[in-house]
Amino acid sequence: MALQETYRRWIDDVWNGPSDADLLAEKARRIVTANFQGHWPGHDVHGPAELAAAIAETKEMFDSIEFSIEVGPFVDGDHVAGRWVGVGTRDGRTTRFVGNDILRATGDRFAEYWVATVQL
């Protein structure tokens, strides 16, 4: 599978996937390696289960949330970069934020992740 498609699945199947951490972990296991490392400002996650828990925690902050790819994905060797927009709603208020992803792949799965996010 091309890494561009893996990135689309990263957004569609994982970030826009189910809110339940166990179901998210199942989807994440198809996209990330067992020794996956995710780097957020201020904390890291290790493995598909911790990734799923971090995403589920993000989803819990909103009544609804959806991510869409704005730019990319761009592939250079084993690295993928993309820019996304997130729109979340809580208590009738909408919040928009953007992020830039850089992921390193091993084969057709992501092994490492860096993100920078800002609220608009």
TrEMBL record:
Q: Where are its TM segments located?
A: none
Q: Which residues form the SnoaL-like domain?
A: 8-113
Gene3D superfamilies, per the entry:
3.10.450.50
Query: Where does the record place a coiled coil?
Result: none
InterPro entries recorded: NTF2-like_dom_sf, SnoaL-like
Task: Tell me the Pfam families matching this sequence.
Answer: SnoaL_2
Name of the protein described by the UniProt record: Nuclear transport factor 2 family protein
